Amino acid sequence: MRKIGFVFVVFLLSASALAQDATPGIWNKRVLTDGSGKLPAGLPYRLWVPEGYDATKQYPLIVYLHGAGERGVDNEKHIAKNGAPQLVNELQRKQACFVLAPQVPDGKRWVEVNWGEKEPHQMPAEPSDSMRLLLKLLDELPKEFSLDPKRYYLTGISMGGFGTWELLVRRPQIFAAAIPICGGADNNTAPQIKHVPIWTFHGDADTVVWPQRTRGMVAALQALGAPVKYTEYPGIGHNSWDKAYSEPGLFDWLLAQQKN
């Protein structure tokens, strides 16, 4: 009997150690471990659970991919600025929703390509380690929370703009709309995402990620009759996300999109 009791206690301790925070109304701090060992710290991520979460209802999911300056494993700086606060503050006033913000470790990228090239890159055959874990996380979250499969949305800035374009291609059927900001893509992948409503942004004075990276992908999508919108800001350099996330009607447009 003592042995059974001991095993039961160990089981409870193990279960509690594996449990992840899911408190409504805050940025819950979580980690997805990497069984391959390639990312020792796994994929740190924050998950905003909407206030008043009711598992009998379905909620939209917003995925936010940060830029290079917010890399690390602190699970802090990627939600402190550059879009994440706006996504929570603005969106929650319009629609109770989940917001997922994963973090890339230092030295890693959402897409392992050169950001500074003016010409489009060729999409890697395999996802980066961070992208691989994010794909796994997107498969796992609906098992834990009541998410609306018709209302998954995606956005990202700079490095995360590259990630936004690639994640759309790697999961072309799950997102209802996307907002890539000052990123770049493999223009040859346009046919795979031509059905997804996209509103993309870039500054015409950007010399970190050249604006032709967005212009080229937009042209490829427009040639296919895709529902793509493009806003280019005159005189704006790399930080076009402050203006983009303050664009009138942006979040109303986003939340109005639903998959058929």
Provide a descriptive summary of the structure in words:
By secondary structure, the chain is α/β, with parallel strands linked by helices. Helix content is 30%, strand content 20%. The chain has seven helices and eight strands. It has helices at residues 2-18, 84-94, 129-144, 159-170, 212-222, 241-245, 250-256, and strands at 27-32, 43-48, 59-65, 98-102, 147-157, 177-181, 198-203, 228-233. The protein has an eight-stranded mixed sheet, with helices on both faces. Helix 2 links the parallel strand 3 and strand 4. The longest helix is centred in the N-terminal third of the chain and has 17 residues, at 2-18. The protein is globular.
Lay out the secondary structure:
Elements: H1 2-18, E1 27-32, E2 43-48, E3 59-65, H2 84-94, E4 98-102, H3 129-144, E5 147-157, H4 159-170, E6 177-181, E7 198-203, H5 212-222, E8 228-233, H6 241-245, H7 250-256
Q: What structural class do you assign from the helix and strand content? A: alpha/beta
Number of helices: 7
Q: Summarize the biggest pleated sheet.
A: 8 strands, mixed
Q: What's the Cα radius of gyration?
A: 19 Å
How much of the residues is beta strand, in percent? 15-25%
Shape: globular
Any low-confidence stretches, pLDDT <50, length ≥5?
1-18
Average pLDDT level? 91
Number of DSSP strands?
8
Helix content: 25-40%
Instruction: Give the strand order of the largest sheet, numbering strands 1, 2, ... along the chain.
Output: 1-2-4-3-5-6-7-8
Strand-and-helix sequence, N→C?
HEEEHEHEHEEHEHH
N-end to C-end Cα span: 56 Å
